[in-house]
Design a protein that fits this description.
mainly beta, seven-stranded mixed β-sheet, four-stranded antiparallel β-sheet, 11 strands, 0% helix, globular
Length: 123
Amino acid sequence: QLQLVESGGGLVQPGGSLRLSCTASGFTSGNYAIGWFRQAPGKEREGISCVSYSGSSTNYADSVKGRFTTSRDNAKNTVYLQMNSLKPEDAAVYYCAARRYVCAASSSAYNSWGQGTQVTVSS
């Protein structure tokens, strides 16, 4: 079974940057695509980014396109979410999730989830 752990969240000022990490353990040879999701209080979970198992394909929600970049280092079993030009509306709990091979838009398509890491954007 695959386990995911997010790290790197914290408090940042508007316009600042953070890099989140999602580290996998367990059945890591399963060729997983990794999606990033976020959920703010009172709002639905939002899919914001995904990277395919090979790293050759990425996609982004319009709300983060041009500001966030996802990448992966399969040798380290880690996926990164580089977040630049952060806005107060980016504040949320950020989750990574895994599914086999290719990305999917719906959170229900992902089988394994991390516990989440809090991102706060405030001056």
